[in-house]
Automatic annotation (TrEMBL):
Transmembrane segments: 6-29, 281-299
Biological source species: Thermobacillus xylanilyticus
InterPro entries registered for this protein in UniProt: Bact_2-comp_sensor_kinase, HAMP_dom, HATPase_C_sf, HATPase_dom, Sig_transdc_His_kin_internal
Protein's UniProt name: Sensor with HAMP domain
Coiled coil spans: 45-72
Key words, A-Z: Cell membrane, Coiled coil, Kinase, Membrane, Phosphoprotein, Transferase, Transmembrane, Transmembrane helix
UniProt-annotated location(s): Cell membrane
Length: 581
């Protein structure tokens, strides 16, 4: 019943999630389709208005330059007293005017050329062509257009012009000086292309009364002719027009100051393209999702959920201590393999508990006893040697102190009880050993034995893991050293592990020997000879897991450094805290 409830919940959950998405998608499609054109129109009109404002500011600036030029003293001098000027003055005045024209032309990218028509001396000065004979045709066309006063921009020969003149001294007399600026049509086309939003869109400048048209490209120029016929009589700034079988979204902005309109055309498919397939994909998604959830739910229940539930229940029984459970599965599939391996795991687990684990424990205890028996004869010999030396000197106080330390030492290594002790007891025993050795090597070997940090005192560790490392330093390095020896025992701890570091300044081991020791400790091969350090390393690893044990390296003191590392993991958290309080 529970499985059926899960199945129904999966179907309902899928419908609850998918159906609102589909309905929302349909609504958004209709809303987007309706408002996309309006939004594009608003943005396009704002862009077109901004373009016209920029163009108007540019025209105003050019007009200011014209009027400034018209007031030039040199120009006035040329037009009024040319005949009275010598050749040098004429040349200087003309050069000055050429420089001014070139400077004005370079100040704006929209200027194609700038002309100064000086009727009184029969000359025309151009920024591009220099000084030449009076261009009467340009002069008359510009004068007529300026006198008509219909627009600030003069549309002539498919180009835009600006003009200003200074009237003659007598009424009805033709202007003595007329300044003409011709705008660069190519630059205007380039500016129009910059306002095209999409690759398919186009734009053009238009003055219907003057019959002036300037398109951003050849394709737009072709469409523009159809627009003039299709848009005749239309009202509003945004239109939907069909030209040559294609629908266009058309927006127009107008400026009365320049008597110019800028028109932008965008194919309707460019607006619809992101939305055209949305509805179809939404319904396909809904259908596919519904079929998928039904098929997936049924197949998941039959093929995965029911066999997995059986496996979970079996694991729970194993957690409760039932190792006799077996799972039977008739199909030869992945779950059949898992069930078979589960059954094999239980058999091997029982074998490990009954044989391997018990044998490991017996082997470790035997190795510990063997290590103790190896240590005792050598240490006893040295202890009796120290007692003999003290007795010969008659130092009864040190004899009493030494015998008390010796008794505590042997009591620790020979007592029965748990194999694990608090680290504080282990360090107390190791410190006792170094105090005994100080009596023997007080003049040759110095010892730095740091205090055990409070937070490390209650860590449970296997017995005899620190003192044998210190003894190894004495026997194999410090005793053989001809000059002064130094032994240092320090402690480190962080959230992940604790370390007891034993290092000396002896030279009893080479770099190759350290690498060999690292390799033998890392291999954990049962066929290797079981030395004292191997025994300690294995017991720590068995207690605390991988990442713990002995880690030898070259000490900063130039001797051997052995770090006894105890890693804190969830699997041995109880070992760390046992005995606390």
């Amino acid at each position: 019943m529970r499985c059926n409830t899960i199945f129904v919940r999966l179907v309902i959950m899928h419908l609850v999630v998918v159906l609102p998405i589909i309905l929302l998608g349909i609504y958004l499609y209709n809303w987007s389709y309706k408002n996309a054109g309006e939004e594009i129109s608003r943005n396009t009109l704002a862009q077109l208005a901004s373009y016209l404002q920029d163009l108007n500011r540019e025209i105003e600036w050019l007009e200011i330059q014209q009027y400034d030029l018209l007031q030039e003293g040199q120009l006035h001098k040329i037009s009024m007293i040319w005949d009275k000027m010598d050749n040098n003055e004429r040349r200087e005045s003309i050069n000055y005017m050429l420089h001014r024209l070139t400077s004005i032309k370079g100040s704006s990218a929209y200027i194609k050329d700038i002309y100064v028509h000086i009727r009184s001396i029969g000359k025309t000065i151009s920024a591009e062509n220099g000084v030449y004979d009076f261009d009467r045709e340009r002069y008359d066309d510009m004068r007529s257009a300026l006198n008509a006063g219909e627009s600030r921009l003069i549309k002539r020969n498919g180009a835009l012009h600006l003009g200003v003149y200074r009237a003659g001294g007598m009424t009805g007399e033709k202007p003595a000086v007329l300044i003409e600026i011709e705008l660069d049509a190519d630059k205007l086309r380039e500016s129009l292309r910059q306002i095209n939003v999409y690759p398919e869109s186009g734009s053009f400048l238009l003055d219907e009364e003057a019959g002036f048209m300037l398109a951003s490209d050849d394709r737009t120029d072709h469409i523009m002719q159809h627009y003039l016929a299709a848009a005749e009589g239309a009202t509003g700034n945004s239109l939907q027009l069909e030209m040559e079988g294609r629908k266009y979204h058309v927006d127009k902005a107008h400026t009365g100051e320049l008597r110019l309109s800028v028109v932008a055309l965008l194919p309707e498919e460019a607006v619809k393209r992101p939305l055209s397939k949305f509805t179809m994909w939404a319904w396909l998604f809904a259908l596919a999702s519904s079929i998928a959830i039904i098929v997936y739910s049924v197949s998941t229940y039959r093929v995965v959920h029911r066999p997995l539930l059986l496996l979970v229940q079996s694991f729970r029984k194993v957690e409760g201590g039932d190792l006799d459970i077996r799972i039977h599965h008739l199909r030869n599939d992945e779950f059949g393999y898992l069930y078979n391996r589960f059954n094999q795991m239980l058999i091997k687990l029982q074998t490990l508990i009954d044989q391997d684990f018990k044998q490991k424990l017996m082997m470790q205890k035997a190795e510990l006893k063997q290590l103790q028996s190896q240590i005792n004869p050598h240490f006893l010999y040295n202890s009796f040697f120290i007692l003999n030396s003290l007795a010969r000197t008659g130092d009864t106080e040190r004899i009493e102190l030494f015998t008390n330390m010796l008794g505590e030492y042997f009591r620790f290594i020979t007592r029965d009880g748990a194999d694990n002790v608090c680290l504080s007891e282990e360090i107390r025993h190791a410190r006792m050993y170094t105090d005994i050795q100080k009596l023997r090597f007080s003049r040759r070997i110095n010892v730095q034995f740091d205090d055990l940090p409070k937070e490390m005192e209650h860590i449970r560790v296997p017995r005899l893991i620190v003192q044998p490392i210190i003894e190894n330093a004495y026997e194999h390095s410090l005793e053989k050293k001809p000059d002064e020896g130094f032994l240092r025992i320090t402690f480190e701890m962080d959230s992940g592990h604790a370390q007891i570091i034993v290092e000396d300044n002896g030279n009893g081991i080479s770099d190759a020997g350290i690498e060999d020791l690292k390799n033998r400790l890392a291999s954990m091969d049962d066929s290797q000879e079981m030395t004292g350090m191997m025994n300690i390393h294995r017991r720590i690893v068995l207690t605390y897991g991988e990442g713990s044990g002995l880690f030898p390296s070259r000490s900063e003191l130039n001797g051997l450094k052995v770090a006894i590392r105890i890693r804190f993991g969830e699997e041995n958290r109880h070992v760390q805290t046992a005995g606390r309080g």
